């Protein structure tokens, strides 16, 4: 029998061969390195599905160089800001049921006025961060 899990607590790795592998609970930034080690064989085709609830704007920009990231707002509202390699900037407001795509190489950050819960499907290999 399948086990019921909460996405907010146990993220999922989507891997080669159409696999879906529940992950141990997030316990700090070193979790990402361990995740990368667990699923290194999937390379850039692996995807992390995670859910986060935000009550504050992000403190850092993020960029995924090797693949798209799908950002799905499931409750609340967030303003997603994107900075493209050519310097162009765009922003969009996501509300429950809406999504956006962060293309490879596009820096992105989110502003939260009250609260937003978001599901991410991320090609995370090579992810980079920079201060706001």
Structure characterization notes:
With 132 residues, this protein is mainly β. The chain contains one helix and ten strands. The chain has one helix spanning 30-38; strands spanning 12-15, 19-22, 47-54, 60-63, 69-83, 89-95, 99-102, 107-111, 116-122, 128-131. The strands form two sheets. Strands 1, 2, 3, 5, 6, 7, 8 and 9 form an eight-stranded antiparallel β-sheet that branches. A hairpin with a 3-residue loop joins strand 1 and strand 2 (19-22). The longest helix is centred in the first third of the chain and has 9 residues, at 30-38. It is globular and about 40 Å long. The termini are far apart. The model has no long low-confidence stretch (mean pLDDT 96).
Task: List key phrases describing it.
10 strands, two-stranded antiparallel ribbon, globular, mainly beta, about 130 residues
Number of strands: 10
Question: Which band does the percent of strand residues land in?
Answer: over 45%
Poorly predicted residue ranges: none
Output the radius of gyration.
15 Å
Averaged pLDDT, please? Answer: 96
Q: Which structural class matches the secondary elements?
A: mainly beta
| Number of contiguous helices | 1
Order of helices and strands: EEHEEEEEEEE
Q: In whole angstroms, how far apart are the ends?
A: 45 Å
Shape: globular
Roughly how much helix do the residues carry, as a percent range? under 10%
Tell me about the largest β-sheet.
8 strands, antiparallel
């Amino acid at each position: 029998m399948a086990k019921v899990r909460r996405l907010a607590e146990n993220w999922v790795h989507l891997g080669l061969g159409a696999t879906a592998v529940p992950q141990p609970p997030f316990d700090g930034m070193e979790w990402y390195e361990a995740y990368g080690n667990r699923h290194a064989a999937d390379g850039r085709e692996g995807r992390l599905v995670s859910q986060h609830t935000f009550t504050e704007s992000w403190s850092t920009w993020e960029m995924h160089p090797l693949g798209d990231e799908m950002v799905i707002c499931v409750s609340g509202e967030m303003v997603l800001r994107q900075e493209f390699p050519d310097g162009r900037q765009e922003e969009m407001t996501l509300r429950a049921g809406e999504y956006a795509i962060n293309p490879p190489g596009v820096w992105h950050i989110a502003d939260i006025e009250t609260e937003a819960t978001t599901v991410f499907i991320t090609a995370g290999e090579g992810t980079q961060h920079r201060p706001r």
